[in-house]
Write a structure and sequence with these properties.
Length: 89
């Protein structure tokens, strides 16, 4: 983040906290949405299998979200570097 916002460190910290909070809230909401289980219908083995499937899917989702955020940060950094090169010319 410091490479993107070279001007002020306060902006960097505030933006980082904002992205971090949004990332956690989005992931927590998605996790609560997909972990809907009905405990009274099946046995414990089926419950554990479903739970492990849902937790594994959520972990894959977290990895994808992390990569998407990283992509946006790197894209913004490259954009800032292009602007700086254009200004120096």
């Amino acid at each position: 983040m410091t490479n993107i916002f070279k001007v002020k460190e306060e902006i960097t910290k505030a933006t980082n906290k904002l992205f971090e909070s949004g990332f956690y809230l989005l992931n927590l909401g998605f996790a609560l949405m997909i972990l809907e289980l009905y405990l009274y219908k099946e046995g414990y083995q089926e419950l554990i299998e479903k739970l492990s499937y849902k937790i594994g899917g959520f972990e894959i989702y977290l990895g994808i979200m992390l990569l998407v955020n990283l992509y946006f940060f790197l894209e913004e950094k490259e954009k800032q570097e292009r602007i700086i090169k254009m200004i120096k010319m």
